[in-house]
Amino acid sequence: MRILRIAQKVYPDVTGGGPYHVHAMSRDQAAMGHDVTVLTVGEGARQEERDGYTIVRRPAIAKPLGNAIAPGIARFLRTADGYDVIHAHSHLYASTNLAAVARRFGETPLAVTNHGLYSQTAPEWVFDIYLKTLGRWTFNRADVVFCYTDADRQRLRNRSVTAPIEVVSNGIDTGRFSSDGPESELIESTGPVVLFVGRLVDGKRPEVAVEAFAKVRDVYPDAQLYLCGDGPLRDDLEKQTKQSGIESAVTFLGHLSYDEMPAVYRSVDVLVLPSRAEGLPRTVLEAMASGVSVVVSDLEQIQEIVGAGCRPVDGDADEFADAITASIRTNNVRGSERVEEYQWSDTVAQTTEVLESIRGS
């Protein structure tokens, strides 16, 4: 099968769960014998071979609300032929809108993966309008839409998305992410360790993690906070730690490679993720598989994995601080059995099976 994957971002050009998902899916489908091309927005080599698949880059001419617009994507789609299926990632990007236009006027079937209804970099009201207009139109041009959870499928139906929907859970490599193995030399603490993993952007609300941690220090003065990720809020967060008097207890790790993350998870006690919107966060699954307690925003799609070691929070920094403190106190960190069903190999196999089913539709 010849697959043209449309992705605004791909790892390691850009970090994060979505870009890594695109990379790993392309790598593993190529290993299965499929011919995979990833069309993405970016600088550097216009075309290269990596990990068994082809990357084609086209430069952006503008980035309104962080949404890069690249006319070269449209030109490539207009002249591309011979692909069995187009698989676009996230309805939030201009590249996926262009893929929907290509489907409207072309014959190659289109799949769209919903990585989360809302952007992490723009106000929610903007995307409420978008989801009633261009976003819904884009979904409805697809021959199939992938959602991670039943809750996300229902959310799309509630927004009048009528395209066929397949629920294929996000997955992780539980052989890599487990409680057995070495810890990270980057984590140094004799007290409890709290970890934040994600881009330092508004939607992830890292400032809530910092504020909550300051309150945790009132109970556990020897606690340490590590923030793993980069983004435009880093300077503001560093100022926040100084103003809160917790600068010496907070470490900014910046971006770490995917290979380093298993050891990092094994070195901490609690992962905190106060995002305002998510799909099914890979970080939550990875932490739980590693035997780490998780304190996460009480999002509807998270409910499917809530269990031992996962505390959903519907509230402000005070509530997050209480949940983190309770997780440290009870040391209830065994949630790995809860994520055994979320295997990355199953994600790849099920996704590929669905793509095969729409081939030639």
Task: Sum this structure up briefly.
This protein has twelve helices and 14 strands. The protein has 361 residues and is of the alpha/beta class.
3D structure, described in words:
With 361 residues, this protein is an alpha/beta fold. The chain has two domains: 2-171 and 343-358, 3-Layer(aba) Sandwich (Rossmann fold), CATH 3.40.50.2000; 193-339, 3-Layer(aba) Sandwich (Rossmann fold), CATH 3.40.50.2000. Helices cover 35% and strands 19% of the residues. It has twelve helices and 14 strands. The protein has helices spanning 17-31, 71-79, 94-105, 124-132, 134-140, 150-158, 206-219, 234-243, 261-266, 282-289, 317-330, 344-358; strands at 2-7, 35-41, 47-50, 53-58, 85-89, 110-113, 144-147, 165-167, 193-197, 224-228, 250-254, 270-273, 293-297, 310-313. The protein has an eight-stranded mixed sheet with strand order 3-4-2-1-5-6-7-8, with helices on both faces. A hairpin with a 2-residue loop joins strand 3 (47-50) and strand 4 (53-58). It is globular, with a radius of gyration of 20 Å. The protein starts with a strand and ends with a helix.
